[in-house]
Design a protein that fits this description.
The chain is of the alpha/beta class. The chain has a single domain, classed as 3-Layer(aba) Sandwich (Rossmann fold), CATH 3.40.50.150. It is 25% helix and 30% strand. The chain contains five helices and nine strands. The protein has a seven-stranded mixed beta sheet, with helices on both faces. A two-stranded antiparallel sheet has the order 6-7. Strand 8 (186-193) and strand 9 (200-207) form a beta hairpin. The longest helix has 17 residues, at 18-34. The radius of gyration is 17 Å and the shape is globular. InterPro entries: Methyltransf_11, SAM-dependent_MTases_sf.
Amino acid sequence: MTKQVEAGHYEFGRYMSLPRWNSIWQQLTLVSTLGGENILEVGPGPGLFKTVANHIGFHVETVDQDPELEPDHLGDVLRLPLNDSSYDVTCAFQVLEHLPFDGALKALDELARVARNYVVISLPDAERTWRFIIHLPKFGERAILLPRPRLSRSIHKFDGEHYWELNKRGYETKKVISAFLKSRKLDLVRTFRSFENPCHRFFVFSVAD
């Protein structure tokens, strides 16, 4: 995997927007519901997920090819330098789109190989939405995401970082999920988009026996 950004890309004022904070909250919430204590994060970025997760009782180790990010393990997601089934949960948040799609499938294989129980990833979702908050008597507030209608899907062009994105032409969510599950030891548990940051779609996979 080719290095695409320098460590300075993750400077707080440039990188940590309010929607990104919400995505980190989603990451922590997902991991906390899966029951694992030993977690691997591939592509740690500024390291916030690891810092907070370790503070609330999890043990997180990181892998990255960039030594400037000070990962616990220096390595490539396509060839993780780790043993089979060595972590309860493996994670890669906003990582796989930085690889050509065939490479993303190989990276998912590696995440599944190293995981005992679950693989959690997030990907950029290009499908635009309208966001509504409605108040229902006796039920309180409900947040709703509605896809915006479009005549055709846009074609993704490599921008120096992303090789592909969900719901651009050829990468519809159902098609990508089908490719993820084909001949892999994974079952899809759930997928969703955050109301506060709908351009990030999360996937939780269980590792099949």
